[in-house]
Amino acid sequence: MKFTEEHEWLRPEDEEGVVTVGITEHAATQLGDLVFVELPEEGRMVARHDEVVVIESVKAASDIMAPVDGEIVEVNSALIDNPALVNEDPLGDGWFFKMKVADMADLDAMMDEADYKKFV
């Protein structure tokens, strides 16, 4: 897994350049209980730092940005009915979307788990 300074994680899924994206346990804890998630449309092309997910918690509303350039290929529709999955399992069932990354080399500049733990 790779991590961003915005507390997102990326998990490569296959050799085709698809990654799953979510937020870290640290981010989920800071946000508090999620009550609403708005997911992007599948097939949408995004650029790094584009707003792709809107989340609302009991504490605040926040945007999740695209960590890299690519295409949204799947969304976790389970979050629409149960946004609490993000709090319950942020590194597993609480993922937001899968995307086909334009350039997998972009992940090389991101933190690994040890570096992210130091960052937090």
From TrEMBL:
Cofactor(s) required, per the database record: (R)-lipoate
Keyword line: Lipoyl
Residues with the N6-lipoyllysine modification: K59
One example of a Gene Ontology biological process annotation: protein lipoylation
SUPFAM superfamilies in UniProt: Single hybrid motif (SSF51230)
Cellular component per GO, a single term: cytosol
Cofactor details (free text): Binds 1 lipoyl cofactor covalently.
Pfam families per the UniProt record, alphabetical: GCV_H
Domain Lipoyl-binding as annotated: residue spans: 18-100
Family: Belongs to the GcvH family.
HAMAP family linked to this entry: GcvH
Function: The glycine cleavage system catalyzes the degradation of glycine. The H protein shuttles the methylamine group of glycine from the P protein to the T protein.
Assembly: The glycine cleavage system is composed of four proteins: P, T, L and H.
Protein known as: Glycine cleavage system H protein
Organism this protein belongs to: Oceaniovalibus guishaninsula JLT2003
Underlying gene: gcvH
